[in-house]
Amino acid sequence: MAQFVKIYPENPSEKEINKVVEVLRNGGLIIYPTDTVYGLGCDITNTKALERIARLKGIKLEKANFSFVCHDLSNISDYIKQIDTSTFKILKKALPGPYTFILPGNNNLPKEFRKKKTVGIRVPDNNIAREIVRKLGNPIVSTSIYDEDEILEYTTDPELILEKWDNKVDLIIDGGYGDNQASTVIDLSEFEPEIIREGKGSIDIF
């Protein structure tokens, strides 16, 4: 049975955030709100937790395209190669926001991801997600939770998420209704920005 914790995005309770961080530090899996859809996440430094997420998604860990959720831009530089000024300007303009940026990874990446040349980075415009990462002290690995429903691609109601994921994860955050549109994915690993998936974030700013 997963813990079910109510956290208000406007002013996340420190006590509840600490509860979430403790679960992550102990190798637990959480479902948490972002500025787009609800995400399934774990501590980036915990191999067992990473393997659990990959199993839940039915994929091999080394093939997984998980994104790293960071607290801010300074957090990002720990895991990516040095970027040029124009790339930095794009990130500064768009983040925090509903975007996933694909950037060249560096040698600090957890060993499970080093074979990949690039990494997807997110800084969601959601206080709950960012507070968790800030308190944890390093990014969380994240992937969207899909719905089998043919009409709705993503579950937005925390109560329904609890029903479906109760026995699969360790903690579920009720941060209010989520969005049903995923982030816009932009590849910045080459010379020109390339839109991989158009989602919630406007592409006009590029």
TrEMBL record:
Residues 14-201 form the YrdC-like domain. InterPro entries: DHBP_synth_RibB-like_a/b_dom, Sua5-like_dom, SUA5_domain. Pfam families: Sua5_yciO_yrdC (PF01300). One of its GO terms (molecular function) is double-stranded RNA binding. It comes from the Bacteria. This is Translation factor (SUA5). It comes from Myroides odoratus (Flavobacterium odoratum).
